[in-house]
Amino acid sequence: MLRILEPLYLSESVKGESRKIIKALRKGRAEIGYFALTLAENGTDHIDVIASGYLKQKILLEKLPPLIGLSVTRAEAMDLIVRITDDCLRETGGTDLRAYLLNTKTEKDCK
After folding, report:
1. Is the whole-model pTM more than 0.70?
2. CB 61, CB 53: distance < 8 Å
3. Which residues, 6 or more positions from 69, have their beta carbon under 8 angstroms from its beta carbon?
4. 39-73 pLDDT tens trace
5. How many whole angstroms from its chain centre is CA 108?
6. What is the gyration radius of the CA atoms in the chain, in angstroms?
7. Helix, strand, coil abundance in the chain, percent, nearest 5
8. Any idea where the domains of the chain sit in the sequence?
């Protein structure tokens, strides 16, 4: 099941397409050509950047940590991480991105 921490961080080039991308993800039909930002699964890192092609694998999609952002390029994904870090620093004075995201975003299940 796809889980999202809302509101999502979106790159400029994804803003008009985000609903379409999420709908495709929910149905297991991830489109190739974008990157998904999720909370890191390993517990050590804060954020993972996953190429959308990997999300076509049902087993990976079922175990996907909460989605926090979408971008078209890897560079845009890195820009989103910088934006998240800036927000976290401004709001908390620290850099615990995982805690910041979990405490300031609302988790939503997309069925």
Report:
1. yes
2. no
3. 8, 9, 10, 11, 36, 37, 77, 80, 84
4. 998 878 899 999 988 888 777 777 889 999 999 99
5. 13
6. 13
7. 40, 25, 30
8. 2-106
